[in-house]
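pinned: reference chain
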Amino acid sequence: MEENKKNPKVIDLRVVAKKIWANKKLFYKVLPIVFVLSCFYIVSIPRYYTSETKLAPEMENSGAGGTLGSIAASFGFDLSDMQTSDAITPLLYPDLMEDNAFVVSILNVKVESQDEDIKSTYHDYLKDFQKVAWWTYPMSWLKSLLPKKEAPVGNKGKFDAYYLSKDEDDILNSARDNIKISIDKKTGVITINTKAQDPLICKILADSIKDKLQVFITDYRTNKARVDYEYYKQLTAEAKQDYERMRQRYGAFIDGNVNIALQSVRLKAEEMESEMELKLNNYNTLNSQMLAAKAKVQERTPAFTVIKGAAVPIKPAGPKRMIFVAGILILACFTTAFYLVRKDLHFSF
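pinned: its structure tokens
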């Protein structure tokens, strides 16, 4: 008994190999069946393409850097983001895909397939032109037989990005799955990845999102400056009107009293001239402030550098059919081998 405990039972690989070789005909039956079924399955799944573009927006910060900035960057922290004057840091730009209004603006993009058979909005493309696996058709048919529950249909009469029907919400989620926005914390480079079943649509989508992201960043960065400019523009226009009215009144008064040498007339003319000069000075001051606010808009407008433009993909990104079939065949080999030697694997220590 003690010898048995000291000498545990081990697996004899030669016995296992002989047993597998003796039953090799089982592999001849299993592997062709697995190959055909795996090929049939993976071929039924529609292929998709991916495209990528990289964008580097101008960063506004207070110049954080030096030795401390380099040390922080080595640990994955960007001090420039912490000291930016913007309320929305670049790290939050990828979260735009969580906003329904931003995604809805993407759904309105016009897309066109490479073979020119599809010309529609991205919304209609997701709704009407998506290829699906064959087994989804009987599943859809079975679902259609089940009693339907009344679901919210969205805001009646008006489209509201934040009050959608179930079908519209599903389309928005599909768009989110096909679009990924990420940012490198160290370099600030924004990467946009898109996925679609058509290569040209994939490229159009990446370019459109890049443009919309540029518009969003520009609008946000220049928002306060544009508000200030419009404010001073309005004040300047009002000041100019006041000056023009006063100038006309002064001119009319002088023309009407050109031959009158009364002291009261001369004092009134001097009073009106002084008031006209005040309004002119007010107009010139506001006009200078308006021009400064206009220059501030340009100063706050960020510059963008496209590091990598979106290209029309040549080869599909997935599914990887050969890798999938090879993986399934390897799994089938191991499963069949385990089935043959399962009794020999029972050993105790």
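why pinned: The radius of gyration is 36 Å. The chain has twelve helices and six strands.
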